[in-house]
């Protein structure tokens, strides 16, 4: 059995920031990951490769909007080559970063299971080996959820689109997407912009279930109306035909319907990956998620759980912040916590075309808490950058606490949403007020000046 100071189960955003911080502080750290490389699912099949493909779709959409058309037909294989190149570049970058700390930090490929509260057993092609540590960080992430629908095995998943050397190398003429969460909606928007005829089926009555309904209602009309989106659709089966076509049967309140497509994408969500042997240790797991407090500790104090595996904010950048919080608390020993993670100020962007983003507490959350808000909005129809890019639809909206005028949350629907939400999120995290935002002279002509303009409307 090998003894180290800290073991991380996983090497993605919930693991490696802590591992690097702890190694620099002199701790001996071991990362164990089934892929054997750093950055987890974000780089393997998620945020980075999907955005590499999205940028092509966005350029195509912009060219069409400006009347430039397409000089050539979309070559998906060419786009995938670019996506693969980005992924390989980042893997090489991460390997170089890891090498600089090799005296204190190592990464091995394998699957880990708990033997006891301080010991994990790692299995790989070389055999089985046990490792013991004073502290353990669980950052095993999440995996694709495939519901038990007859014929689901005939569907693609996001892995077929965004993993290295993806299965999908040409655009399907007709595509059905099952699931209207952020993965399904983003992929529908991207592939439709590249040229596929897309139908999206969502079981719930609202797209993006669980997200502020007013936010969703503001985003929906901004999306291409030729994407067919059906809510309240319960898929009954997926069946192949003899003509290399898939038949999807589903029902709504209006009755049964059957659609044909050249490909079907299953985008029904993701589920946390819980390590084997964990619950026997007394670590609390509810609804398939490891329960943590704001220090990222589990119910077993020396075991931490960061990122998607705790289900709190399943985003890569949130995992990074949680990982660093866990590292600071480990460095502080097992006495009083040294750091806390603010789950409320993590920005979320839906990378549709156009995108939309939110942070903090918006209208629905505040109403559910029985709290009032003073709202201030800036519509992009009056924004110079939106006019330059011919994207006048959408808005920026801020939610302030009455009296103190402290910013509690905000959303952006439309142009530059993914960029603007970071600035709003920083203001939320630092407790800035409408007066603070109103006093700041942001750049012109940039959509970010809408933040201060919205705040100034309160005075």
Automatic annotation (TrEMBL):
Residues 346-454 form the Pyridine nucleotide-disulphide oxidoreductase dimerisation domain. NAD(+) binds at residues 179-186, 202, 269. Its cofactor is FAD. FAD binds at residues 51, 308. Disulfide bonds join 42-47. Binds 1 FAD per subunit. Residues 5-322 form the FAD/NAD(P)-binding domain. InterPro entries: Class-I_Pyr_Nuc-Dis_Oxidored, FAD/NAD-bd_sf, FAD/NAD-binding_dom, FAD/NAD-linked_Rdtase_dimer_sf, Pyr_nuc-diS_OxRdtase, Pyr_nucl-diS_OxRdtase_dimer. GO terms for molecular function: dihydrolipoyl dehydrogenase (NADH) activity; flavin adenine dinucleotide binding. Belongs to the class-I pyridine nucleotide-disulfide oxidoreductase family. This is Dihydrolipoyl dehydrogenase. It comes from Acidihalobacter aeolianus.
């Amino acid at each position: 059995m090998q003894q180290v100071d800290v073991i991380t189960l996983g090497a993605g955003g919930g693991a490696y920031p802590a591992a690097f911080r702890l190694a620099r502080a002199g701790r001996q750290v071991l990362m164990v990951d089934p892929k054997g490389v750093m950055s987890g699912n974000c780089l393997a099949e998620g945020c980075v490769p999907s955005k590499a493909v999205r940028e092509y779709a966005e350029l195509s959409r912009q060219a069409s909007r400006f009347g430039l058309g397409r000089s050539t037909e979309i070559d998906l294989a060419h786009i995938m080559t670019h996506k693969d190149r980005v992924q390989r570049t980042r893997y090489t970058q991460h390997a170089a970063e890891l090498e600089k700390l090799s005296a204190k930090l190592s990464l091995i490929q394998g699957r880990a299971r708990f033997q006891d509260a301080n010991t994990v057993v790692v299995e790989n092609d070389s055999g089985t080996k046990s490792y013991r540590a004073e502290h353990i960080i669980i950052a095993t992430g999440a995996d694709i959820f495939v519901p038990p629908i007859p014929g689901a095995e005939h569907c693609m998943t996001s892995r077929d689109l965004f993993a290295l050397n993806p299965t999908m190398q040409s655009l399907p003429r007709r595509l059905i997407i099952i699931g209207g969460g952020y993965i399904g909606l983003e992929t529908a928007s991207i592939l439709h912009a590249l040229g596929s005829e897309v139908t999206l089926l969502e079981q719930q009555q609202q797209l993006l279930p669980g997200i502020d309904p007013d936010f969703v209602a503001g985003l929906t009309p901004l999306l291409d109306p030729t994407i067919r989106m059906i809510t309240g659709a319960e898929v009954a089966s997926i069946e192949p035909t003899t003509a290399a076509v898939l038949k999807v049967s589903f029902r709504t309140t209006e009755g049964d319907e059957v659609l044909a497509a050249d490909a079907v994408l299953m985008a029904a969500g993701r589920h946390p990956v819980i390590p084997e042997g964990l619950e026997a240790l007394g670590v609390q797991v509810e609804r398939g998620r490891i329960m943590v407090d704001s220090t990222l500790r589990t119910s077993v104090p020396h075991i931490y759980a960061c990122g998607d595996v705790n289900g709190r904010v399943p985003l890569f950048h949130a995992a990074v912040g949680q990982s660093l919080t866990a590292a600071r608390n480990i460095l502080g020993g097992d006495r009083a916590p040294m750091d806390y993670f603010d789950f409320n100020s993590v920005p979320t962007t839906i990378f549709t075309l156009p995108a939309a983003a939110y942070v903090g507490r918006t209208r629905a959350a505040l109403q559910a808490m029985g709290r009032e808000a003073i709202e201030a909005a800036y519509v992009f129809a009056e924004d110079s950058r939106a006019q330059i890019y011919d994207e006048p639809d959408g808005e920026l909206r801020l939610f302030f606490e009455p009296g103190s005028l402290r910013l509690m949350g905000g959303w952006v629907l439309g142009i530059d949403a993914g960029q603007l939400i970071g600035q709003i999120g920083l203001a939320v995290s630092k407790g800035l007020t409408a007066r603070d935002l109103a006093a700041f002279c942001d750049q012109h002509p940039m959509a970010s000046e809408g933040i201060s303009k919205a705040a100034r409307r309160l005075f």
